[in-house]
Amino acid sequence: MLLDDKLWVAQGENPCYLLLNQANRHGLIAGASGTGKTVTLKVLAEGFSHAGVPVFMADVKGDITGMCQTGEDTENIRERVAKFGIENWSLAGCPCHFWDMLEGSDIPVRVTISDMGPTLLSRLLGLTEVQEGVLDIVFRIADDRQLLLIDLKDLRAMLNYVAEHAKEFETTYGKVSSQSTGAILRALISLEDEGAGTFFGEPALELADWFSCDESGQGYVNVLNAAKLVQSPQVYAMFLLWMLSELFETLPEVGDADKPKFVFFFDEAHLLFNGMPKELLDKMVQVVKLIRSKGVGVYFITQSPSDIPDEVLAQLSNRIQHGLRAYTPAEQKAVRAAAASFRENPAFASEDVILELGTGEALVSFLDAEGRPSIVENAKVLPPQCLMAAASDDAMQAARAAQQPLMDKYGTAVDRESAFEVIQGQAEAAAAEQEQAAEDAAAQEAAENEAAAAAKAAEKEAERAAKMEQWQEKERQKVQNQVIKDVSRAATSMLGQFGKEAGKQLLRGLFGGLKK
């Protein structure tokens, strides 16, 4: 509940106020299942919203949606309000925007492959150090060739492209083994099976759309539908880590402000840190330490403080510890550690109280005006002004109607030209060029064969003509020889006949003369 420049969160022997100018020093809400963490989360979130501070939170169980709806005026609520002495109490919902990463009915949340980057993507895919190095090379080649990596098909196309041209890239970027690219491609299939295929794409989320207030000045509560998302813990954790890193890198320094610019709630925080490599943990610690100066408050919600690494836990100054259960030595140790983190209250032993806290009760310690942890209070959390349960269908329909401008902006996926299209175009162009070269070669071969056939035919025709000419020459010679022969025979015959006649004449002449 907002009171001037502070949030009234709980009531013990003294009221527990979270000062807005100390809210960006981060915080922790911890406790076993069923101890009231979700209600505490709603009380904090609606307080920030009423103060004009936009909020982000993930809805893991589906009941955060009730923040958009006015709470119910029940007898139990009235009794608690009267017991706490709350004046000017009113029930009210908060302006909400509902988002979804897995193709739900709410505003789609998308991030490009390039925005995620090789480091977070390697963590998301569960790659080895060698495989992560290969992914770094793939991203570098894509940058050098100005190939946009937007969605998973872009990354798949780029991996295949690099693998096919590995020899060309080896001297410049290093060796890329087919085994590593194959392992990354297999990991992409697993990622798609978890539903992450719809998460990568455009239009990509602009975080500025989360830094908005409604017409009355209340900050929007941005609720991410994570009911299905937590079944893909790697996707969920990497998105939250990306978002926190993006906030850190894009927001300007604001120093010590009167109130946060944005408050970020990490529900199921253990999913974020399970198996986190040291380099990512170092990055998380750095971001948590420095993002305070950007005006962002980060609040982790988990079952036990031991779920969060000590380096991060040390940065969480505003703490609400609900009840813990200690059935094992490890759990007993966690209880002692949680109790020891509070500034001691001489009226009770925190370690004992943690085990006895009922639903809606908590040990609470916030920073005071000087930035010092206040003495821990054994307190009861105030009821939320919004609905404790999930929102009704009518309330959700009204909230979705109000967020239509954002749905118009993000609702339809855009698939512009990127690495996949460029590489596919290059492959198609190369294939077309090869096909054209093959056609040209075939045409040239056909022309050469045709020319050879024509030359052979001409040669045969020349041979036939030569043979014909030889035959004709022979025939002419035969005719000529026959003519000569015939003439000779005729001449001989004529000469013979002439000789006979001449002889006869001669004889006649001779004999005639003799007779005389």
Shape, principal axes of CA atoms: rod-shaped
Strand-pairing-aware structural class: alpha/beta
Distance between the termini: 189 Å
Main pleated-sheet profile? 13 strands, mixed
Summed over residues and divided by their number, the pLDDT gives a mean of 88
Q: Number of helix segments? A: 16
- In sequence order, what are the helices and strands, one letter per element? EEEEHEHEEHHHHHEHEHHEHEHHEEHHH
Could you name the key traits of this structure?
516 residues, 51% helix
Architecture overview:
The protein is of the alpha/beta class and 516 residues long. It has 16 helices and 13 strands. Strand 2 and strand 3 (15-19) form a beta hairpin. Helix 4 (129-144) packs across helix 7.
Concise overview:
The chain has 516 residues and is an alpha/beta fold. It is built from 16 helices and 13 strands. The protein is rod-shaped.
Outline the fold blueprint.
Blueprint: E1 2-3, E2 6-11, E3 15-19, E4 27-30, H1 37-50, E5 55-59, H2 75-84, E6 96-100, E7 107-108, H3 113-125, H4 129-144, H5 152-164, H6 166-173, H7 178-193, E8 221-225, H8 233-250, E9 262-266, H9 270-273, H10 278-290, E10 296-302, H11 310-313, E11 318-321, H12 329-340, H13 350-356, E12 361-365, E13 377-381, H14 393-402, H15 404-410, H16 419-515
Parallel strand pairs: 4-10, 4-11, 5-8, 5-9, 6-7, 6-8, 9-10
Antiparallel strand pairs: 1-2, 2-3, 2-13, 11-12, 12-13
Helix pairs in contact: 3-4, 3-8, 4-5, 4-7, 5-7, 5-16, 8-10, 12-13
